[in-house]
Design a protein that fits this description.
CATH topology of the largest domain: Dipeptide-binding Protein, domain 3
Number of helices: 21
CATH class of the largest domain: Alpha Beta
Strand order of the largest sheet: 16-15-17-12-18
Helix content: 25-40%
Number of strands: 21
CATH architecture of the largest domain: Roll
Oligomer: single chain
Distance between the termini: 35 Å
Structural class: alpha+beta
Number of domains: 3
Length: about 650
Amino acid sequence: MKRSVWIVALLAFVALALVACGAPAAPAGEAGEAAAGEAAPGEGLMTDVGTPRSETLIFQTFDRKAANPDQMNPLMDYAVWRGFRELGWGYLWEMDTGTGESYPELTESMPEVLNDEYTKFRIKLKEGIYWSDGVEFTTDDIIFTFDAYFDGIGKLTNGNITRITNYIKSYEAIDKYTFEVETVKPAYDFTTVMGVDTWASAFIPVPKHIFEQQEDLAAFRNTYPVTLGPYFVKEFDPNGFWQLWERREDWERSAYGWMGEPKPKWVLYKDFGPEESRVLAFVQNQYDVDTFMSPDSIKGAQQRNDKITTFAPKMPYHNMDDACSYGVMMNQHKAPLDKPEVRWALALSLDLKDVGINSVSGEFKASPLPMVDTQILRPVYFDPLIPWLNELALPDGYKPFDPNFGSDLVDRLKEMGVAESELPSTPEEISTGFGIGYWKYDPAEAEKLMASVGMNKNADGFYTLPDGTVWELELVIPGDWNKVMQRVGFSLADSWRKAGFQVNARQVDNAEFGNVQNTNALLTSMLTWYNCTFTPNYLNQWYGISPDYILPADSTELITGNAWRWENERAFELIAESKTMPTTDQRFRDIGVEVLKEFVTDMAFINMMNIPTTIPTNEYYWTGYPKQDNYYAEPYSWWSSAKEMVVNVEPTGMK
């Protein structure tokens, strides 16, 4: 770890020396360019897009480069990672990422339930909200959006179209600010389906006065859209590397203007290049909030700039309360992954301590359940399952759970030189920091499981199929658009190879990543963040656990549910039952516990860790980011937390 930090610091020093010697800057619009512009005497620095640096909050992009930067139509597969969710769109109900509670954004209150069956709802919009071009937002926009969703089935490419059209039965405007909706089935999750559950909403209102003028909504790119949020698109890079947002003069009339004035006049989402280039740019105060920087790079940057901070002062240093987890999705329709013995063998061949240390310097929180272990979900789903996990046995009697995973990880980190003062010490602190435990690393037991289904090692030590040929397992992982996840993927592949699996770790870009995940013919296995549950309402993630969404193994049709390709009759029955009751009922939560047991028993998804949201912030120009001791929101630039961030940060006065 120390050697890695030294190398990163050395690279940053060399890069700084090159800059000082007059190394040429990259052309405007390209990744890795210098963001600091020339300043006139007595003025502050300007960004390379022509805005005062001291008035511009700058985020590293989530996906690095957008494949479709001019596509801003939310009815289509659009450039989603460019600030639309945070700055441009508005939702009926939002999610407080600090508490997991829903709250009204475009609406006056939570929906009024009109019948005992929980299928009819009345919604009242806030008055006085306007689109960025000055046209008032009313139920006309809501009804037009519903019409567009239903009329566009089969033509519109946003996957949420299917979700809403399968969920809503009818809708009508009552007056200018009131509308009613009837759902196909009892909808106890109405506020999170029609509002926000984790990342965003399946229902994005569009402006009727703009969209009704278009002959073909599927062909309409909506470039430079009118917005409901307090910012509008000022400019964007046609090559997909950056997008600039400017605060509306009438920000108080926007979707969340009632929260207070957003402090930055401009917000820039920009890719600063590969991680080595980003470290240099970050050290030079060229941007303010990173997205998944490797821990060793963060340490190297902190050694050169004391304004660079992490979420917490102790390990694992970062916020681990993202809704999603890293884990291995397997196509259970394809042999031999259709056998639970093989899936369990893969789980027991995963040395998560080594993977976590090699990829993220041990800064992670393990989770054996296909769910994130957070302060919201721990008491509801994890604590009740700890006794069951301790007693869980495979058919041969083997007990796979290791409750000492966290304490053993602490010991390993101490041996590697991590100071005791930076590590949790009590059992409670270790559990909070590193998780409740994980699966044992036991290649010997894995070999027994593989042998039980006719798969044995050859003379070279690799597992073969029953016909004697080597089983080559493709593992799809992100390219360097997500450096942290990429490193986790390479470490995972190494762990499996050491245990005897011939693994082909294939890197893909962001667009292909989504296609693989959602297409049976393309998927064998992949490292993904698919399991996303932020509140005790698991239905927004598990709704599709149903035989209705099963497609053939070689299907090229995009899946619309059950991404695990999981066939479990008990789970199907439990999820169907859960859809018939309020999501706050104890029975609903008990069902969640039972579904988790089925997931684990089948090893239908090899969950690994909460997403290690290694997000450093730079406090040279802005301060007041979410921190452990100031936890008003999660510290993510791609969630609703960014809304609270732009309202709460303050300029430091540096020019």
